[in-house]
Design a protein that fits this description.
Number of strands: 18
Radius of gyration: 23 Å
Structural class: alpha/beta
Largest sheet: 8 strands, parallel
Strand order of the largest sheet: 11-10-9-5-2-1-13-12
Length: about 525
Amino acid sequence: MAAPIPTRTADWWRDAVIYQVYPRSFADGDGDGTGDLAGVRARLPHLAGLGVDAVWFTPWYASPMVDGGYDVADYRAIDPSFGTLAEAEKLIAEAAALGLRVIVDIVPNHVSDRHAWFREALAAGPGSPERARFHFRPGRGENGELPPNDWPSQFSGSTWTRVPDGEWYLHLFTPEQPDLNWAHPDVRREHEEVLRFWFERGVAGVRIDSAALLTKEPGLRDFTEGVDPHPYIDLDEIHDVYRSWRAIADEYGGVFVGEVWLPDAERFARYLRPDELHTAFNFNFLACPWEPDRLRRTIDSTLAEHAPVQAPATWVLCNHDVTRTATRYGRADTAFDFAAKRFGTPADLELGTRRARAAALLTLALPGSVYLYQGEELGLPEADIPLDRIQDPMHFRSGGTDPGRDGCRVPLPWEAEAPSYGFGNGTDPWLPQPADWARYAVDRQSADPDSMLTLYRAALALRRTEPGFGDGTLSWLPAPDGVLAFTRDSGLTCVVNLSAGPVDLPAHQTRLLASGPLDPAGTLPPDTAVWLRA
């Protein structure tokens, strides 16, 4: 029987604040150094008290964890390091009792090389029905010694791996993540059954990883830069998949959010048509630098992209793949680009934190829904991981030049004076926590009226209770150079000062919340945001 789903409105997802949990690093309930479902269940009151509407879990399924769980071996089983299926069902029900919906993550582009289908494919040999579920091909060259094509990998390196019988298989990510053949009916049928499996257990929605990569050009032709259509990104056939999925979600009242990285606004919007996905992540905003003109253009273009299909925009500053906001905004280059990541990039954390506080109010005031990655409410910086503790395959496949994503995945600090800062019972966590993280602990910030956590709690409380937030319209106000100022419905106004000096506030009746103290004269300091009621 499905767990009860808390209800606020039928279209709750249009203006929800959704908290992202990376289970390995949220809380460790059994003391083995790895976060788990028992730890999440014990900390659910933190999320309810924070004021979020839903919780999105990155993959918690059975997995060898080569890519942090995005190499799924069995969608109907919870990885033993996290717990059991029964615990997941309890978590869904307990979250619902606290007014929190649960969103799970699926990874339809590929599976783990430990998945039963792939093991069967290896054993069955060339030309077998089992191999037809994947992209196995003979190699090129005189003896098949060359890969079947030249497609670039999402993780650097080759996209093909040769097996002992001479054939090659496609993997856009790591060799341990073989791509599925979405032209095969078994693949379509299995994923539809997986969706039903989790909707029937009470989940409110599904996040779709690498949502634009599923379908491939049938001949797997070579990649040529600038030639359309791309052989494996955003092929038209992919929309048939999502239309069939939407019909399933509608049966259960479920929602989808897609991870869609596309530069073309019109093609991006196709994924959000009324019979496909409900929402998609806004990566342009996430990657945008802390610059007023760029931010305004990104906000305008995002809203324009969504308007033709009447879908709500989503806003996110950080996730489990990108540099922490407080660090990124303290760097000389405040944009995010995977290709630009390098070791030793300096950051001014005081400046970055001040900007991250202002960005929180900016993001929460924009029309649509918001995704909040765990630890952002604490203002956590990116952690420097010792070379011998790095686990992310992006680091290794780059030849060691890319520091990888582990720095934003470090286990959370809960209690300043406890072993491992309350993450577990003191067992060395799977990634090391910095020695100075006691100041970021939940208990210490809860007692500090000026902390990042206090700011987020106050902002989310206002977003729930004050009119004008969430879904709706936005109108820009006249403002000095370097300042973003806009009004929402019911007279709500947001002002963000990205200039080098203080600025006067527009006329208003009430100051609801500021990201930092105002100047003695009542002006708004640089890198500070404020919410006003006209």
